[in-house]
Design a protein that fits this description.
single chain; mainly alpha; 93 residues
Amino acid sequence: MTTFRSLFLFQWKLIVPALVLSVLLAALMMELDHLRAGIGIAFIFFMPTMHYFRYELKNPEEYFFYYNMGLSKLRLWIYTIIFSLSAGLLLMI
């Protein structure tokens, strides 16, 4: 259960800024009819981008916290990409 909580904490720090940027970009670039599709496409792009900026450039030492919880760097990247694709595709429907 602690692995799930730490994974949720990891993803939550990425979801909020990625979703805000996705909504803003879609609102600026897409017509109102295609807004949800634009949000989904932007979310698929921004979620891994936020992961890279937050955990690779800004706070690379936070990986040690998640590694001690049993989540390696590769696993966190895989979870981010899977979550990004699934949430983005759900937003496009």
